[in-house]
C-alpha cells in the first residue's frame, strides 16, 4: 500500500476523533434536558460512527503493520463501505438537526447546542469524504497488486500443491 494512503487513514481517524468530541460536548450540554427533549438525537449515532471508524481504520492500520497474517482486504473493503454509508447518514442527520435547532430555538440559549451539532456535522462531512477517498484508492491499490498483502506468500515447495521437497540423497 502507498504510504500516503496511511496518512489519509490517519487523517480520517483524527477527524473522527473531532466528531466524537463534538458529539460528546453536545450531549454534555443537554444534560438532564435530554430526557424531556423528545425524539432522537444524532449525537449518539455520531459517537457510534466514530467508534466504528476507529475499529475499522485502526484495525486496518494495526493489522497491516503488526499482524499482516490478519490483513484481509475484502473484510476491510466491506468495513469501509459500511463506514461511508454510516458517515453519510450521520452528517446529514446532524446537519438537519442543527438546522432545526437554529431555526426553532434561535431566541433562547440553545446556540451552543446547535453549534456543537453543526461542528459534528461539518467534521462528519469531511470524514465522509476522507473515508470515500480511502475506499476508492484502497480498492485501486488492491487491484494493482492482487497478491499484495492479503496473505503471506507460499513457498515453492509446498506439499499441498503436489510439489514435494526431496530429502536425503537421490540414488541413481
What does this structure look like?
The chain is mainly α. It has one domain. It has five helices and no strands. The protein has helices at 3-30, 33-37, 42-66, 73-104, 111-144. Helix 1 packs antiparallel against helix 3 and helix 3 (42-66) packs antiparallel against helix 4. The longest helix is centred in the last third of the chain and has 34 residues, at 111-144. It is elongated, with a radius of gyration of 23 Å. The N and C termini lie far apart (49 Å).
Look at the structure and give the mean pLDDT.
Answer: 83
Low-confidence stretches: none
Structural class by helix and strand composition: mainly alpha
Percentage of β-strand residues: under 5%
Count of distinct structural domains: 1
Shape: elongated
What's the arrangement of secondary structure elements?
Elements: H1 3-30, H2 33-37, H3 42-66, H4 73-104, H5 111-144
Helix pairs in contact: 1-3, 1-5, 3-4, 4-5
Organism: Dactylonectria estremocensis
Transmembrane segments: 43-62, 74-93, 113-139
Keywords: Membrane, Transmembrane, Transmembrane helix
Amino acid at each position: 500500500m502507498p504510504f500516503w494512503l496511511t496518512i489519509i487513514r490517519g487523517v480520517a481517524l483524527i477527524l473522527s476523533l473531532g466528531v466524537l468530541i463534538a458529539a460528546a460536548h453536545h450531549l454534555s450540554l443537554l444534560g438532564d434536558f435530554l430526557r424531556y427533549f423528545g425524539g432522537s438525537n444524532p449525537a449518539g449515532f455520531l459517537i457510534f460512527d466514530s467508534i466504528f471508524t476507529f475499529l475499522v481504520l485502526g484495525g486496518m492500520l494495526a493489522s497491516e503493520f503488526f499482524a499482516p497474517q490478519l490483513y484481509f482486504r475484502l473484510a476491510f473493503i466491506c468495513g469501509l463501505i459500511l463506514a461511508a454509508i454510516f458517515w453519510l447518514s450521520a452528517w446529514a442527520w446532524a446537519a438537519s438537526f442543527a438546522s432545526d435547532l437554529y431555526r426553532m430555538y434561535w431566541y433562547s440559549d440553545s446556540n451552543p447546542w446547535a453549534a456543537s451539532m453543526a461542528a459534528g456535522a461539518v467534521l462528519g462531512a469531511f470524514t465522509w469524504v476522507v473515508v470515500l477517498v480511502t475506499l476508492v484508492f484502497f480498492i485501486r491499490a488492491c487491484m494493482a497488486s492482487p497478491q499484495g498483502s492479503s496473505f503471506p506468500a507460499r513457498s515453492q515447495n509446498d506439499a499441498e500443491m503436489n510439489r514435494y521437497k526431496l530429502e536425503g540423497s537421490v540414488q541413481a
